Amino acid sequence: MAASTEAPDPWYLALLGFAEHFRTSSPPKIRLCVHCLQAVFQFKPPPRVEARTHLQLGSVLYRHTKNSELAQSHLEKAQISQFEDVKFEAASILSEFYCQQNLVDSAKPVLRKAIQISQQTPYWHCRLLFQLAQLHALEKDLVSACDLLGVGAEYARVMGSEYTRALFLLSKGMLLLMERKLSEVHPLLTLCGTIVENWQGNPIQKESLRVFFLVLQVTHYLDAGQVKSVKPCLKQLQQCIQTISTLHDDEILPTNPAALFHWLPKEHMCVLVYLVTVMHSMQAGYLEKAQKYTDKALMQLEKLKMLDSSPILSTFQVILLEHIIMCRLVTGHKATALQEISQVCQLCQQSPRLFTNHAAQLHTLLGLYCISVNCMDNAEAQFTAALQMTTHQELWTFIVTNLASVYIREGNRHQELYSLLERINPDHNFPVRRFLRETLKMSNAEDLNRLTACSLVLLGHIFFVLGNHRESNNMVVPAMQLASKIPDMSVQLWSSALLKDLNKACGNTMDAHEAAQMHQNFSQQLLQDHIAACSLPEHNLISWTDGLPPVQFQPQNGPTTSLGSLL
C-alpha cells in the first residue's frame, strides 16, 4: 500500500482492492489482478504509487505466472525507485527471481548493494543479510554465510535487539554444526543460551528462540553419539513445544523494527521437534518409537501442505522418509521401504534443489535396499553413484563402509576391499577384538542399542569360531534379547542361527531345536518380504544411477535375485 502524507486517491484504492480480490479468489484470477494493477498507470500516478505498483506487478507475475521477462522488468523498475521500502523489497524479490532462473551470480550483487544502503532501515538490513547468508549456504559457501550472520548479529546488538542477535547467532551455530566445527559450536551455543534465558519479550518469540537453541543442542549431542546424555535437553525441547502450542499468535508486535522476525511458524516447529525425536530414537535403537513419531509428523505435514507451499515442508518430509526407510530395512519391511524410497523420488522430481541436496542419500538408501535383497552389483553401483554426489565426511564414511560390506559378501573383491579399508582407516595395527570391546563399552555407556546388539553378536560369533562356547553364549543371548526389543531382523536371524549351532555343539538338543525354529520363523518372514519387494514395479529403481529418478516403473514378473544369502 502507498504510504504518504496525503490520502491515496479513491481510484487507486478501488483498483488495488479489485486486484487483491482477484488475487485471493479461489481459484485466483491472476489475469484480472494484473489488469487492475496495470490500469493504475493509466491515471499518471504519483511516483510512490507508480513504484509500489511496479513492485506489486513484478511480485504477482513472478509468483503466479510464467511471464518471467515482464516480472523482471517491473521488479527492476521498482528497485531503482527513490523510496526505500519499495527499493529494498524489490531487491529481495528480484534476487529470489534470479535464483529461480539459476542466475545466482546476478542475485548476489543485488543483495549486496541493498545491504550497503539499508543500514538506516533496520528491518530490511537484517532481512537482506539473512537472505544473502542463505544464498551462500545453499551454494555450500558456509564460510561466507557465517561471516554475514556474524555481521548481522553485531548489527542487531548495536540496534538493541537481543532477540534478532540470537537469531543470527543460532543460524551461525547451525551452519557450524553442518561444517562439524565443534570447537566453535560449543562457545557459541553457551553464549546463545545466556542470551535466550536473559531476554524478556514477546512470549512466542522467546519460546521459538528456546526451540531453536534446544534443537541445535540436541543435534550437537546426537552428532557426538551422546544419545543418553541428550535426554534432558530433548525433554526440555518437548516441553517447550507444548508451551508454545498454548500461546496465541495475536501478541503485540515488537516496537524495535530490527526484531520483526519469526524463526518458524508453530506448526513447523512441532514437525521439527518430531523429526529430532525420530533422530534420537533411531540412534538409540528404539525403532518402534521412531516409526510412531514419524507417522505423527508425516500426518501433520500432509495437513500443512494442503494450506502451505513452503519448501521447508518438503525438506522435512524427505528427511523423515529417509529415517523411516532405514527403520523399515532394519525391521525387515523391505517392500514398505521401497515404496517410501519411491515417495522420496517423487518429491525430488518436483524440486530440483531438493534432489540436489538429497541425491546422495537417495542412492545410499537404494544401495542399502539392494544389499537387503542380495542385489550386490546394483548395491555397488548405487554406492558408487552416491560417493560421486557428496563431500559430506560422515555420509562418505557411511557409504564407503557399506560398500566394503558388499565386497566382503561377494568374497572375491579382496583388492577393492583393502583399498577401501585403507581410505577408511590407514592404521591396521590394533586387534579387531579390542575394537569390538571398545565399541561395546561406548555403546553401552550411551544406550546405543543397535550398536550394542551388533557388537555382541559379532563377538559371540568370534568366540564360537575360537571354540569358547561359554563366552559366545554370554554374548549371543543378550544380543538376541536386545535385537528383539529394537527389533532388528538381521541381528535376530544371525543370533538365532548362532544359538542353534552353539547349543548343538554343546549337546543342548532342546535349546538347539528351539533356536532352529526361531531361525526358520525369521527366515520365512524375510523370504515373504523379499518376494513382495522384488515383485513391486518400484524394484526397477535399483538400476537407476544417473540423472533425475524415473517417474514411472515397469511392473516386475517376480523376484530376480537370489534368496540364499538371506537364509
Write a structural description:
It contains 25 helices and no strands. α23 runs antiparallel to α24. The chain is elongated. The longest helix has 26 residues, at 509-534. It is an all-alpha fold and 567 residues long. Among the domains are: 11-112, Serine Threonine Protein Phosphatase 5, Tetratricopeptide repeat (Alpha Horseshoe), CATH 1.25.40; 119-248 and 257-284, Serine Threonine Protein Phosphatase 5, Tetratricopeptide repeat (Alpha Horseshoe), CATH 1.25.40. The model is unreliable at 1-5 and 557-567 (pLDDT under 50). One of its GO terms (biological process) is mitotic sister chromatid cohesion. One of its GO terms (cellular component) is nucleoplasm. Its main location: nucleus.
Any chance you could write out the topology, listing elements then pairs?
Blueprint: H1 10-23, H2 30-40, H3 47-64, H4 68-79, H5 84-100, H6 104-116, H7 122-138, H8 142-158, H9 162-178, H10 182-198, H11 203-223, H12 231-246, H13 266-284, H14 287-307, H15 311-331, H16 334-350, H17 352-372, H18 376-387, H19 393-410, H20 414-424, H21 432-445, H22 449-465, H23 469-485, H24 489-505, H25 509-534
Helix pairs in contact: 1-2, 2-3, 3-4, 3-5, 4-5, 5-6, 6-7, 7-8, 8-9, 9-10, 9-11, 10-11, 11-12, 11-13, 12-13, 13-14, 13-15, 14-15, 15-16, 15-17, 16-17, 16-25, 17-18, 17-19, 18-19, 19-20, 21-22, 22-23, 22-24, 23-24, 24-25
Short synopsis of the structure:
The protein has 567 residues and is mainly alpha-helical.
